Amino acid sequence: MPPAGPLPPPAVDRLPAGTRLSPLVLNDQDGLPATVEELILRHDRKELLETPVMLDLLERKWDYFAGERYRSRIIIFAAMLLSVFAASLAEPGTLPFYLAVPSTAVTWALFGQEQLRRLRASLAKRRAGLAESGDSSRPRSLAFTANFFGALDVYNFALVPIVTAYRIAADAGLTSVAVEDNALLASLSGGLQVTLALSMLNLVALFRVLGPLLITVVQMLTDSLRFAVVIGIVLIGYANGFYSLIHFGVSADYLATLSSSFDYSYPNIVTEMCLWLTGQPSLDLIQPLTPNVQLGASVLFWSFIVTSYFVLLNLLIAIFNTTYERILSNSVAEWLYIRLKTTVEFEADDSNVDGVRAYYEQLVARDGQRAVRGTDAAETSRDDNVKSTSRSSSRR
Question: Where are the domains of the chain?
Answer without folding.
Answer: 44-204, 218-347
